[in-house]
Structures are given as structure tokens and as C-alpha cells.
Design a protein that fits this description.
By secondary structure, the chain is mainly alpha-helical. Among the domains are: 151 residues, Rossmann fold (3-Layer(aba) Sandwich), CATH 3.40.50; 87 residues, no CATH class; 68 residues, Arc Repressor Mutant, subunit A; 63 residues. The chain is built from 32 helices and 8 strands. It has a 5-stranded parallel beta sheet, with helices on both faces. Strands 6-8-7 form a 3-stranded antiparallel beta sheet. α5 links the parallel β3 and β4. The two termini are 20 Å apart. This is NTPase-like protein.
């Protein structure tokens, strides 16, 4: 047995070094050894996005039989099962969909996807692009690789769902157009759609339509019994039946009425009936429709709330999204926990997770109507408090993730509750991702209210999320809103900064002409106000545009100018980043000797910052490792790449780790150690495949070339 260097070694049962794949141990081997094993790609968790079913679900046996029949029919024909549940608001569509979905979910081993399309809420409906992005990320596509344009999103979603057995719940849909692109392409999948509209045109997509009417009296009575107890119902059976009748068979009205009785255990059912009857007599000139019953029931529950609870209910309805965390409620009420409990107990808001809540769309609409009784100043004050809380919390996250970038100060106008910081950058990014939809909606809401400065700040503070998780569609929308807000605000610095960001996202999206216009405008504005760093940053965006267009000569020339300018300005971090880009571009044009000192300087500059910019320092080391190889410094290249690999592991940068392994593979290849080179390339390929990087094809090709070369050498 020989080691890698060819020296004889004694046979012993141990293994050292960094290995990938199988290890064969044997005393003597005659002939070839072939080991075939699948690569251990990082596993993407199976999506389990369904909300929990209602513990008090009752009735709907006929509808459940119809759903089972539709499923069986699709199974017989080998086609995807698509069912549309339609009916008025509050009729129980979502409750039925969740109840049945949980019953059949084990038939779909590849998981469940669930999105509330917000077709009839207080905010604008979810666009197909947004929903497709959510689904693709849940199916394992890294945020940075989710396409932006709708045709590409839809095509990738079809590919990702083609061979999977998925249950997809599309709740609260506005139209067939909103739904069609979200239907999974696999014939073994199930799509369950709920809507207040009938969506009859979906019949052409193979959908079965199921109309939901009011809950049958026996089911409504069981719902009441499960809430207030059998004893109270059996004590007054006629009054209980009357209460069911007054609620119009609407589960939401039944839940609110039952919650009111549950909150008053000494009340008789008759009392609730008398209240509802009195309310109907006041509006006897109106149709006794189902919607009237809901309004009447909500009026009674609302008026029974203590003043403080009612006020919070009205103000929470102004929140820019339907879901929210308990912490933001502190911006409206410093001691909100017991008040939130009252709203949950009264079925006026729903608890959907630990310290996480949601409005039913009807209840949020009703609460906003009640907020009309407050003056404009009070409503504006409540909304501003919520938006400024989001800004303060997001700024804590921003500081944890990107501490070195320039920011504009903001003086809150509302009394905002204290916000807690984050333990680390991972926790900060997790929170930004959790609240992404609310933060985007918050910036939109602020601009609608013409609070331009606040709107710009809410756009600006999303930068670390977009930097690391991409979300290009959201980023393009937010950056454009940031430009609009800066112009309304009249702040040239803010406008130039956001134009620079908009230019960069346009570059990434391949909209080069737009990007160039934005960069030139940003540089001009920054120059007008004497912001030299702003001018340099905008010109760096232009240099990256040249690079991405393939014009390396122009990119290198501009990077050199920017390096000199940043030296004059004493902008150490900006200089370090420019030197990395310049060094990489020089290496691509065979000017490695010029690149090496620049890359070493970049690493020193970034490491000397307080705190050090460890990610970009590791980036500089990887580029430097490649450059060392080009000039025959294999040992220095190996040491540099290994230190970068350790840093990228600690930072949990998958792409960075892959790039470091590629450098180490090339070091081994140049030394003639094909086995170690293959080990590192397999590491790189596994990492790149796990994030679906477009670079995986190049890594696979290099590995195949290495395997062929090794095979030829063996023969």
C-alpha cells in the first residue's frame, strides 16, 4: 500500500485528511475498484405549509363526500385533481379546505404548499409572481436564483412540480388568472382553490366547482355546543336553534356569537338571541341577508369589548398586512398581551403560531370601518407608530448584517415602543425574511400617506435582505419606490443612493440600458451635492455593468480610477471592494502579477475595519488564491484557499465554500494529485448543486475532464 506521495506504508485501519465519497480499505487489491454511490446533496425539507385545521370544525359531510369523489375521479383518469370551493365571505371555505387537506395530505409525499392570495382583503391581492416565488423557494430554489419575469417563474415552477406529488392550497383567490400559473403540473398532484367568486372558467383547466352554502343547522348547532358546552345548549334547545338561524348558517358569525357566550358563562342563550333580534328590528327595512347577519353579530361583539380592547382592535386593522407578530402590537399598547388574548378569545383575530396572529379578511374590513370613528390624527398616529416600529426593528437587523454602509438618520414622529436587538446576523436575516411582506407593504403604505421620508427609510432598510436573499422582484419594486419617495421628499442624497441600487438590480436582470441611465443619474445627483463617495459608488455600479456586459477593458479602466479616488477619499471599505473587483478582472485578462498586490491589500483593508468585513475578506482570499496559482505559487494558493474555506464555513456561505474548494482542486491538479483534485471538485459540485448555481455545469465539466485524464493515465 502506498500513500499519496508514493512512499510505502504499513497497512492499518485508519483514515485521515479531507475525504469526499466512499473510502475503500483493503490489504491487497488485484484489478480495478469501482465504487458507485449517489452524491450526498444537502436535503431540502419537504414543505409542510398547511395551517392547522380548526379544532371545532363540524358538518360539511356532503361537501367532503364531493371532494373525495373528485379526488377518486382524477385518480381513475390519471389527471391532476383541481377543485374550486366557492361561496360568500365567512361561509367556511378555508376551514373546509384545511380540514379535508389534512385528511388526505399523506397521499402527497412531496409535501403541501399553501398561500393566502388575499383576493378580498384590505390590501392588494398577491400577484402570481409573488406566489410563484414563495413556492419555488419552498421547493428548494435559493432566493438568488428565483427568476423575476413571470414566464420564467412559471416555467421553473412547472419543471419543479412535474415529477412531484404535491397538495397545493390556493386560498382566497380573486380570479382564475391569479390561480392558473400556480397549478402544479404533475398529474399526481392536488390543487385546492377557495374563492368568493365562482371561477367558472377554470372548468377548462379540468377543475371541479363546489358551491358552499350556509352550514346546515345540525352542524351549526354542534359548532355552538363545542364552544359553550352541551349543558347550556340542551337547557335552551329552541333558543339555540334560533341563534343558529339568526347567524344565517355562517360559521364566522356562529363563532363570534358563540365566543361572546363563552366569555359570559352565566348568560343564557336567550340573551344572545334577544340582542340579535333587537338589532335586526332596527334594520328591518333592509334585507335579512347573510352579510347583514355577520355585521349584526360583529356589532354586538365589538360593542361588548372594553374600550381599550376595542381601540386596539381598530388600530390593529390599520396594520399594512393581515399577519403580524405580538411585538409590533407594543407600538400601539405597551401592555398588549392580555388585550390580544381578549381578541383571540372573541374570535376577532386568529392565533396562527407562537406570538403570531392573523385577521380574517372580513374582520379586518369591519375593524377598519370602525376605525372611521377615530379622527384622522388618531388613525395616522396609530399607523405611523406601527410603521416606525417596523423601521426601528429592521434597522437593528440592518446594523447586525451590514454594519458598515452609510445611512441617513431618522427622528421618529410617533411614540414608538423599544425594540430588541438581534443575537447575531443569522437571527437578523431570519426576522427580515419573516417580515418581508409586511416591510414591503409598510413602505407602500407610507408613500400612499405621503410620508416620503419614512417611505424612503423603509425601502432603504431592506438592503441586507436583498443583498443576501436576493428577492429580485421585490427589490426592483422597493428600489423604484425608494426613488419615488426620495423625489417626493426632496432629498438628493437619498435619490442618488436609491438610483444606484436600482441600477444594480437592473444590471442583474439584464436591463442594461435602464441600468446605465440610473447610474449616470445617480452620479450626476451625487456630484451636484458634493457627495464624492456617492459619485464613486455610482461609477462602481457602472464598472460592474461594463463587466457584466463583457467589456473587461472598460471595467478595468474604471475600477483603476475608482481605486485611486477611494484612496483620496480615505474610503477604506469601498477601496477594498473595488480592489477585489479590479483584481478579479485583471486575472481574467492574464495580468495576474498586477492583481496579486491589490488583492492582498484588499484583504488587509477589510480585515482592519471595526468590525472586520469577514465575508469580503474571504472573497479577496479566494481570488488571491486563484491568482497565486497562475504564477506558480501553489503552496501559497493552498494556504490562502484553506483559510478562506474555513471562514466561508463559519459564515455559512455555500457559494464561498464551493469557490474555495475549486481553488484547492486546481492546486492538487497542478501537483498531479488527481484523486485529491477530484475530492475537492466533488465537494464544490455538491455545494453548487445544493443552491442550484449556474456554475455547477462548469464544475461538472471540469470533474469529467479530470476523470478522463486520470483514466487515460491509468491505461
Amino acid at each position: 500500500m502506498t500513500g499519496l506521495g508514493g512512499e510505502p506504508t504499513a497497512a492499518h485501519n485508519s483514515f485521515s485528511g479531507e475525504g469526499v465519497g466512499a473510502v475503500v480499505q483493503a490489504g491487497v487489491v488485484h484489478g480495478d475498484v469501482h465504487v458507485h454511490s449517489p452524491r450526498a446533496h444537502p436535503q431540502v425539507p419537504v414543505p409542510r405549509q398547511l395551517l392547522a385545521p380548526s379544532p371545532r370544525f363540524t358538518g360539511r359531510q356532503a361537501e367532503i363526500r364531493a371532494l373525495n369523489a373528485a379526488r377518486a375521479s382524477s385518480a381513475r383518469t390519471g389527471s391532476r385533481c383541481t377543485v374550486v370551493l366557492n361561496g360568500p365571505g365567512g361561509i367556511g371555505k378555508t376551514a373546509l379546505a384545511l380540514h379535508w387537506a389534512h385528511q388526505v395530505r399523506e397521499e402527497f409525499p412531496d409535501g403541501q404548499l399553501h398561500v393566502d392570495l388575499a383576493g378580498f382583503g384590505v390590501d392588494r391581492p398577491v400577484l402570481p409572481t409573488q406566489a410563484l416565488g414563495m413556492f419555488l423557494r419552498a421547493l428548494g430554489v435559493p432566493p438568488g436564483e428565483v427568476p423575476v419575469e413571470l414566464p420564467e417563474l412559471a416555467a421553473l415552477y412547472r419543471s419543479r412540480t412535474a415529477d412531484r406529488s404535491l397538495l397545493v392550497l390556493l386560498d382566497n383567490a380573486l380570479s382564475a388568472a391569479q390561480v392558473r400559473l400556480l397549478l402544479p403540473s404533475s398529474p399526481t398532484s392536488l390543487a385546492l382553490v377557495t374563492s368568493r367568486n365562482r371561477l367558472a372558467s377554470m372548468v377548462v383547466d379540468g377543475a371541479s366547482l363546489l358551491d358552499l352554502g350556509p352550514l346546515e343547522p345540525t352542524g351549526a348547532l354542534r359548532l355552538l355546543t363545542s364552544t359553550i358546552g352541551e349543558q347550556r345548549v340542551t337547557a335552551q334547545p329552541e333558543q339555540a336553534q334560533r341563534l343558529v338561524q339568526l347567524c344565517g348558517g355562517l360559521p364566522i358569525a356562529m363563532c363570534v356569537a358563540a365566543a361572546r357566550l363563552a366569555a359570559h358563562p352565566r348568560w343564557s342563550v336567550r340573551r344572545a338571541v334577544e340582542e340579535l333580534t333587537d338589532e335586526h328590528s332596527r334594520v328591518s327595512n333592509l334585507s335579512r341577508s347573510a352579510e347583514l347577519s355577520v355585521t349584526t353579530t360583529l356589532d354586538l361583539s365589538y360593542r361588548a369589548l372594553p374600550a381599550r380592547t376595542a381601540r386596539l382592535y381598530r388600530q390593529l386593522a390599520l396594520h399594512p398586512g393581515r399577519t403580524f407578530g405580538a411585538e409590533v402590537v407594543g407600538a400601539l399598547d405597551a401592555e398588549a398581551d392580555p388585550v390580544l388574548e381578549e381578541l383571540v378569545e372573541g374570535n376577532l383575530i386568529e392565533e396562527i403560531g407562537e406570538d403570531r396572529y392573523r385577521f380574517h379578511d372580513l374582520l379586518q374590513l369591519y375593524a377598519r370601518q370602525q376605525a372611521g370613528q377615530d379622527g384622522d390624527e388618531e388613525r395616522d398616529g396609530a399607523l405611523r407608530a406601527v410603521l416606525e416600529w417596523y423601521l426601528a426593528k429592521a434597522r437593528e437587523a440592518d446594523l447586525a448584517v451590514t454594519p458598515h454602509r452609510r445611512r441617513l438618520a431618522y427622528a421618529p414622529r410617533a411614540h414608538t415602543a423599544e425594540v430588541s436587538g438581534f443575537a447575531d446576523r443569522e437571527a437578523a436575516l431570519t426576522w427580515l425574511e419573516l417580515e418581508r411582506v409586511n416591510l414591503v407593504a409598510a413602505s407602500r403604505s407610507a408613500l400612499v400617506r405621503q410620508w416620503a421620508e419614512l417611505a424612503w427609510q423603509l425601502c432603504d432598510v431592506l438592503w441586507p435582505l436583498f443583498l443576501h436573499h436576493k428577492h429580485y422582484s421585490d427589490r426592483a419594486e422597493v428600489d423604484q419606490r425608494g426613488v419615488d419617495a426620495a423625489r417626493a421628499w426632496g432629498n438628493a442624497f437619498a435619490e442618488a443612493d436609491m438610483l444606484k441600487r436600482l441600477g444594480r438590480v437592473c444590471t442583474v436582470l439584464g436591463r442594461y440600458d435602464e441600468a446605465e441611465d440610473h447610474f449616470r443619474a445617480a452620479a450626476a445627483l451625487a456630484g451636484e451635492i458634493g457627495d464624492e463617495r456617492g459619485v464613486a459608488d455610482a461609477r462602481e455600479g457602472m464598472a460592474l455593468l461594463y463587466r457584466d456586459r463583457g467589456d473587461l477593458a472598460s471595467a478595468i479602466e474604471l475600477f483603476r480610477e475608482l481605486a485611486a479616488r477611494n484612496r483620496e477619499l480615505g474610503a477604506q471599505r469601498s477601496l477594498g471592494l473595488v480592489l477585489i473587483n479590479l483584481g478579479a478582472a485583471l486575472c481574467r485578462t492574464d495580468r495576474t502579477g498586477q492583481a496579486l498586490p491589490l488583492l492582498a491589500e484588499a484583504g488587509d483593508l477589510l480585515g482592519a475595519l471595526t468590525p472586520p468585513d469577514r465575508y469580503n475578506q474571504a472573497r479577496a482570499a479566494i481570488v488571491r488564491g486563484r491568482a497565486c496559482l497562475s504564477v506558480g505559487e501553489a503552496e501559497l494558493a493552498e494556504n490562502t484557499a484553506r483559510s478562506a474555506l474555513a471562514a466561508m464555513r463559519e459564515l455559512d456561505s455555500v457559494h464561498g465554500q464551493a469557490e474555495a474548494h475549486e481553488v484547492l482542486a486546481e492546486v492538487a491538479r497542478q501537483r498531479g494529485d488527481h484523486a485529491t483534485a477530484a475530492h475537492h471538485l466533488r465537494h464544490a459540485l455538491d455545494l453548487l448543486s445544493s443552491i442550484h448555481s449556474p456554475q455547477q455545469d462548469a464544475a461538472r465539466a471540469r470533474l469529467a475532464l479530470l476523470d478522463r485524464a486520470e483514466g487515460q493515465a491509468a491505461t
